[in-house]
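Open question from group meeting: does this chain pack into something compact, or does most of it stay loose? Before anyone orders reagents, we agreed to write out a predicted structure and look at it together. Recording both the input and the output here so the notebook holds the full record.
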Amino acid sequence: MNLILNLLWVVFGGGFLLALEYALVGVVCCLTIVGIPFGLQCFKLAGLALWPFGKDFDDSPRGGGTSLIFNVLWFVFAGLWICLTHLAAALTLAVTIIGLPFALQHLKFALMSLTPFGVRVYQRA
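Structure tokens returned:
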């Protein structure tokens, strides 16, 4: 079932464009030394954006002070805007019954896009 939902997500839920967007921003961020940690988080989000069904994330605090500083910078410069975009997409998709699973995935992305540093993505059993 996850395979079918992931394929539908890539085509109809915006997964391909979302993954492409995160990957391109990750490449741009990695062009500078300072942006490498932010680029790596974009690549993590791109991987999750391509196949989100069957995956979950653990957002318990880890990584210490460095992770906190990076999360604050991410939140101020990118996280809030990315979160609002995912919330708008979730509201748009939640209008129909067919779009509800995709809306839930966008809500998952909205949470993860706020503070991605220290978050571990894992395969749900």
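Observations to bring back to the group:
Residues 75 and 101 are 26 Å apart (CA to CA).
The chain has one domain: 2-123.
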